[in-house]
Every structure is written in structure tokens, then in C-alpha cells.
Design brief:
20 strands, binds calcium ion, four-stranded antiparallel sheet, 258 residues, single chain
């Protein structure tokens, strides 16, 4: 009986005074599904796998133009990397394997016109658009829009659309016409082989022939998403406005869906 009491007392002392933990600290269980739903609410916050899926990372851009990669540990989120010298707020960032080599990259566009690529393997800077000198970037998207395996960076900068190859960084197209938009989406909304560039302001451009295919007389929304809501085989555009109202544009009939 006495030895049982000693064992229980020892267990209690061990639980109360665990080595390496400050008083009151306890192991942190991070629920990726809960974090995913938090991140899904925000454009500049993402939950990403680190170490080939062995750890979770929380990436966000803050109000000072800094980007943080926080790593989930048993003691909470720890800073894995921080990028503090962007000099302007972040317009958008993407974490993708842009040249199809098995390692992901972070593509960053700032409001003051910088476009940068960092390796997610060692957080090394791979490229910056030093020769382009945009004064602002209004919107950006990253997707493979042609027949080479690497992705392209599609940027609306100083009112012109640029298609930039993610591997050799060459400009594959600069629009002669000026456009206004705050969001770009890229998807194949019709049944031809190529994708379209969708501007939230109501414009759809074919990526192969670079012609305006649809120019609606109204914006699709402030934030847009593609989804085939009427199940006709063609992606529709769902737009949300700043007052949270929703517009659904049928890309096939070229009018509101219902
Ligand atoms: Ca890569
Ligand atoms: Ca490509
Ligand atoms: Ca298409
Ligand atoms: Ca549809």
C-alpha cells in the first residue's frame, strides 16, 4: 500500500513539474481541419504541408508587408521563416511547384510592383523581376496556361496583362489593351483546349489567341470562383461583392445563371 502511494506521488510530481516546460504550459494539439477552415476565410493565409507532409505550416502576409511561415510543433507555432524586406504590402502569394521539379516555390506579388520567387525547400530567393520595374501589381495568378510543363505567372501590372514563363522568366505576352481588375482567375470555361484568363471586372480572355472572348457590362464580383453550378459541363463564375451579395454568371449563356 505504501509503495503504491509513493508511485502515485511520484507520478503526480512528474506531471506537475515536467522538464523543459514553463509553468502552466502544455502540449498543443493543432487541428489541421480547424486551421484549414480559418485559412479558407482569408486570401493571404494558407495552411501548407512542410517536410513532405510530415509537418504543418501556417503562412500569412501581415499588415506591414511581411510574410511568415509558422511551423506546428508540440509547443505551438514556431517561426520557420520570415520575409521582412518586401517594402510594401503583399498583393497575393502562391505556394506551388512552378517549374515542375518536385520542389515547391513561393511566388509573391507586392502592391508596389515586385514579383519574387523563393524556394520552399531552403527559403532561398530564386528570382525577382528587377528588370520589369512595375509601379504596381493589381492582380496575379499562377497556372500552366500553355503546352510547356512549367507554369506561367499571369500579372495585371500597370494596367497591362503580362504572361511570364515560370522557368525562364521570359515575357510571353503583354496585352496591348489596358485592363482594370483586382482579381484574376485562370480556368478552362469553355470546351476548347486552352484556359481562359478571367478578370473579376467582367472580362474573359483566351490564353492561346489572347483575344477578349467575353466582355460583360458588369463586374462578376470582388472575389470570384469558378464552379459548374448548373451542371451543364461549363464552369460558371460565382462572384462575391464587398457587401457579401452573390452573383452567378453562366459562362455558356453569357448571362446570370437563373
Ligand atoms: Ca519547383
Ligand atoms: Ca506552361
Ligand atoms: Ca478554354
Ligand atoms: Ca455551368
Amino acid at each position: 500500500m505504501r509503495s503504491i502511494k509513493i508511485v502515485m506521488l511520484t507520478v503526480l510530481i512528474c506531471l506537475l513539474f515536467r522538464p523543459g516546460l514553463p509553468a502552466g504550459a502544455k502540449d498543443v494539439e493543432i487541428d489541421p481541419y480547424e486551421m484549414q477552415s480559418v485559412c479558407g476565410r482569408f486570401q493571404l493565409a494558407k495552411l501548407i504541408p512542410l517536410d513532405n507532409g510530415h509537418a504543418w505550416g501556417f503562412v500569412y502576409a501581415d499588415v506591414y508587408g511581411k510574410i511568415f511561415v509558422k511551423r506546428a510543433t508540440q509547443k505551438g507555432w514556431k517561426t520557420d521563416w520570415e520575409l521582412v524586406n518586401l517594402g510594401a504590402k503583399v498583393r497575393n502569394f502562391f505556394i506551388l511547384d512552378i517549374e515542375n521539379d518536385g520542389v515547391q516555390e513561393m511566388v509573391i506579388a507586392t502592391m508596389s510592383g515586385r514579383l519574387l520567387i523563393y524556394s520552399m525547400g531552403d527559403y532561398r530567393n530564386i528570382w525577382e523581376n528587377l528588370e520589369d520595374d512595375f509601379t504596381s501589381i493589381e492582380a496575379v495568378a499562377v497556372k500552366n496556361v500553355d503546352n510547356d510543363p512549367q507554369m506561367e505567372i499571369v500579372v495585371l501590372a500597370d494596367k497591362k496583362i503580362y504572361i511570364i514563363d515560370a522557368l525562364d522568366k521570359s515575357r510571353q505576352w503583354i496585352s496591348s489593351r489596358e485592363f482594370v481588375a483586382t482579381e484574376i482567375l485562370i480556368d478552362n470555361i469553355d470546351k476548347d483546349d486552352q484556359q481562359e484568363i478571367i478578370l473579376n471586372t467582367g472580362i474573359i480572355i483566351d490564353t492561346k489567341f489572347r483575344n477578349v472572348e467575353i466582355e460583360w457590362n458588369r463586374p462578376f464580383g470582388d472575389k470570384i470562383l469558378t464552379f459548374d453550378i448548373n451542371s451543364d459541363g461549363y464552369l460558371d463564375i460565382i462572384g462575391e461583392f464587398s457587401d457579401y451579395s452573390i452573383l452567378i454568371f453562366d459562362t455558356y449563356a453569357q448571362r446570370e445563371v437563373w
